[in-house]
Write a sequence for this structure.
């Protein structure tokens, strides 16, 4: 508070020794201003713990702020700036009003003090919205256009803080702030550049704002900032690019405007600090939502750059690298390069790491994607210990539901592969899958139904025989539970259970038909599904039906949504005559099963 008090003191009555200018100076101070100065000096002398955001101190500072005298305005601005350095809290409209008034001063040093105070107070969520509500944005945008570097630093820093509040983002975009922010991203002053890049980053968390940023030219400037020497500025720029890459339109803009983006990111990933390396990998992961980037990253040596990250002792690096590989593995042309780069054993080692469920999910999904190409040789998977790792993970107690879901989805792919289905039967993994059918997690149970149905649906008699061994040892109970779930809870599990039963019927018709004929509860449940009419509110997603092999279409290689992005909701199935076609197909499947069971030998 030293300089604030000094500024106030300089406006006090001069002594006779100070010369004739004293009589010229005194009339400039109105009575209210002199009283305000006296009040503040007295408060400073008597109590150093006073609050300047309320009561008599605030009223005195407000008088100084609204004065026409430069020194008094500067005193108030300096006081607010210094107070807000150590006393940051939610304040009232009355406390913000004089600061916003000072921001409109004709004096640059007063504006800088006011914008500094506003930036400090904008770190509190309640203040963020109040500043915008009181018209602070327009004043800050005007400050950004100032030729003064200090004014730019303070105003952009304040907008960065305001943009951290979700409700403020659209108001900031509509205030005309985006173009000045983009321009200041090219500032020669590192502090201005860093604040501007941070503000741009805060504006990339909503799809509509990302589009507005692209239109304002942010993609080009953010690409240029990949050359920034300041580590924080570089990190902000990379993260902003990562968020822009969430949308297909954003990836299109990046592809057109930044031809060397992938090469530049890979170079940064190999030369910078861990925090930046991890963010680069996540940016590449988002870019790899597009097939063209999936290929480009591999072609530019991305696999060699990701391998050391997978082997790192820092979890953040390993997770980001695994996430990137998850998307790269979607493209069939990347399967051989990933395996040849020696990444498969590294991924296998990540599968059993129960203390890192996110890492497990990325590793399992990547292996599943790589295994989805049935035409390639899968010996490398077996040599890398695929089933040892997966079986070990399944047998651990307390595995996270999302990991179990990924494991079940992976087995649904393995079951369709000519080289990978047999170990599932021979290693006793069917027992573990049957147990998963009653885990209580709908998506996992559905994926497990796909795995078991696919295993039997391939037509291998030993698979059906192995599964029927577990009919009285948990399989029947699990299927009955799925078939008798209430409509609102059945989701995809009920069609999955029907698919398993149909696959068993097709593989071992006589044995299964006899078993079902003597099982009244199971048969009754299937008949109930086949004869019921379900409203469209209980539809299954079209994507789920598309995964049912043989009966509802061939299984296709799944694309993984980026977990850090906004996931699009599954589209509601088209309703036909008041009922979803998918549900009608489920009813049809149930009726087919009943007909097969009742058919005479």
């Amino acid at each position: 508070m030293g300089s604030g008090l000094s500024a106030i003191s300089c406006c006090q009555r001069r002594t006779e020794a100070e010369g004739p200018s004293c009589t010229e100076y005194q009339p400039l101070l109105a009575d209210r201003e002199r009283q305000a100065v006296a009040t503040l000096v007295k408060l400073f002398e008597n109590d150093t713990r006073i609050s300047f955001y309320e009561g008599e101190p605030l009223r005195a500072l407000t008088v100084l702020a609204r004065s026409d005298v430069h020194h008094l305005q500067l005193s108030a601005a300096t006081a607010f700036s210094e107070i807000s350095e150590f006393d940051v809290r939610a304040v009232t409209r009355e406390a913000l009003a004089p600061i916003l008034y000072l921001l409109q001063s004709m004096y640059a040093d007063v504006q800088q003090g006011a914008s500094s105070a506003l930036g400090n107070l904008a770190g509190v969520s309640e203040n963020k919205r109040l500043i915008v509500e009181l018209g602070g944005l327009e004043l800050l945008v005007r400050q950004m256009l100032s030729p003064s570097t200090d004014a730019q630093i303070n105003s952009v820093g304040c907008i960065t803080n305001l943009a951290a509040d979700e409700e403020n983002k659209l108001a900031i975009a509509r205030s005309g702030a985006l173009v000045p922010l983009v321009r200041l991203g090219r500032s020669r002053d590192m502090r201005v550049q860093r604040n501007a890049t941070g503000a741009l980053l805060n504006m990339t968390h909503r799809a509509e704002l990302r589009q507005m940023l692209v239109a304002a030219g942010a993609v080009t400037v953010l690409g240029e900032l990949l050359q920034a020497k300041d580590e924080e500025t570089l990190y902000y720029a990379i993260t902003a690019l990562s968020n822009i890459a969430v949308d297909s339109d954003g990836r299109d803009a990046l592809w057109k405007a930044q031809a060397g983006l992938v090469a530049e990111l890979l170079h940064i990933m190999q030369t910078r600090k861990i925090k930046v390396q991890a963010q680069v990998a996540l940016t590449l992961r988002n870019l790899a939502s597009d097939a063209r980037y999936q290929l480009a990253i591999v072609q530019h040596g991305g696999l060699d750059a990701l391998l050391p990250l997978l082997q790192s002792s820092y979890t953040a690096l390993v997770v980001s690298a695994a996430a990137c590989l998850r998307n790269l593995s979607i493209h069939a042309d990347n399967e051989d390069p990933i395996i040849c780069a020696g990444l498969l054993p590294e991924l296998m080692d990540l599968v059993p790491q129960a203390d890192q469920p996110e890492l497990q999910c990325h590793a399992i999904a990547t292996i599943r994607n790589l295994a989805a190409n049935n035409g390639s040789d899968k010996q490398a998977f077996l040599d890398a210990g695929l089933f040892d790792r997966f079986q070990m993970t399944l047998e651990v107690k307390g595995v996270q539901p999302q990991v179990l879901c990924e494991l079940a989805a992976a087995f649904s792919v393995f079951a369709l592969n000519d080289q990978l289905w047999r170990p599932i039967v021979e290693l006793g993994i069917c027992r573990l899958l049957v147990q998963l059918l009653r885990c209580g997690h709908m998506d996992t149970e559905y994926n497990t139904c796909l795995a078991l149905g696919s295993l039997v649906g391939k037509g291998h008699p030993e698979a059906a025989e192995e599964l029927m061994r577990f009919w009285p040892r948990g399989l029947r109970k699990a299927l009955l539970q799925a078939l008798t779930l209430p409509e609102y809870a059945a989701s995809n599990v009920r069609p999955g259970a029907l698919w398993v039963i149909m696959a068993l019927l097709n593989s071992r018709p006589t044995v299964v038909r006899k078993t079902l004929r003597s099982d009244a509860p199971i048969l009754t449940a299937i008949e109930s599904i086949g004869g019921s009419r379900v409203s469209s509110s209980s539809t299954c997603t079209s994507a789920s039906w598309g995964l049912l092999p043989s009966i509802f279409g061939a299984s296709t290689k799944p694309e993984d949504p980026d977990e850090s992005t906004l996931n699009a909701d599954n589209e509601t199935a088209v309703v036909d005559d008041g009922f979803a076609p998918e549900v009608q197909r489920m009813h049809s499947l149930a009726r087919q099963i009943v007909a097969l069971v009742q058919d005479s030998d």
Q: What stands out?
A: The radius of gyration is 33 Å. The chain is about 70% helix and 0% strand.
